[in-house]
Design brief:
This protein is an alpha/beta fold and 178 residues long. It has a single domain (18-173), classed as Glutaredoxin (3-Layer(aba) Sandwich), CATH 3.40.30.10. The chain is built from 7 helices and 7 strands; from the N terminus they run H-E-H-E-H-H-E-E-E-H-E-E-H-H. The chain has helices spanning 2-17, 26-35, 50-60, 63-72, 111-115, 143-152, 164-173, and strands spanning 23-24, 39-45, 73-79, 86-88, 91-93, 123-127, 133-138. Strands 1-3-2-6-7 form a 5-stranded mixed beta sheet. A two-stranded antiparallel ribbon has the order 4-5.
Length: 178
């Protein structure tokens, strides 16, 4: 009985400490931007990618990360090898090489994946309020590793960084809170 209580209590605690990001489609994010401008963050993943699953589990489920993203960004999840039709930048993007039988294995690259310049998974693409690419952050990042990028690209202040020295100064003065 004591062990059952511990297990149930642990599950309850895990549920409370996990946080959800308000994921939406790219089209929804672009519509939201028209009403209330915010930068967009796109999690570019694939179904077979282990580091993508770790990013979801360890980073995007972190309460501080999720709260920050929900406050400052429109968050988009995009399957880089999926088959959805996406309208972006006055173009229609598809995956003409998509094979349904390969849905959970390596599949054809979506046209939007190439358009965004993504060449590794996971990649987090930051877009500004005009939907222009700010930066592609490649690979798995822990909450403390992604924090500097989330805070740097949350608004237009990244435009004040004009040189490597400016970035080095920003990095040295950065105080992690995650």
């Amino acid at each position: 009985m004591k062990y059952l209580f511990i297990v149930i209590s642990s599950l309850f605690f895990v549920n409370i400490s996990a946080q959800n990001i308000d994921w939406m489609s790219l089209e929804q994010a672009l519509e939201m931007q028209k009403k209330s401008p915010k930068n967009i963050i796109i999690d570019v993943y694939t179904n077979w990618c282990g580091p993508c699953k770790l990013l979801d589990k360890n980073t995007f489920q972190n309460k501080k990360v999720a709260d920050f993203i929900n406050k400052y960004y429109y968050a988009v999840k995009f399957n880089a090898e999926g088959n959805e039709v996406i309208n972006f930048d006055d173009r229609e993007f598809t995956n003409p090489n998509y094979k349904p039988a390969m849905a959970n294995r390596r599949n054809g690259n979506h046209q939007l994946t190439r358009y965004l310049g993504v060449r590794a998974y996971p990649t987090i693409v930051f877009l500004d309020t005009k939907s222009d690419i700010i930066y592609n952050l490649k690979g798995y990042n822990t909450p403390s590793q992604i924090e500097i990028w989330l805070k740097l690209f949350k608004d237009e202040s990244h435009k004040n960084i004009k040189s490597q020295q400016d970035f080095n100064n920003f990095q040295k003065s950065f105080v992690s809170e995650f």
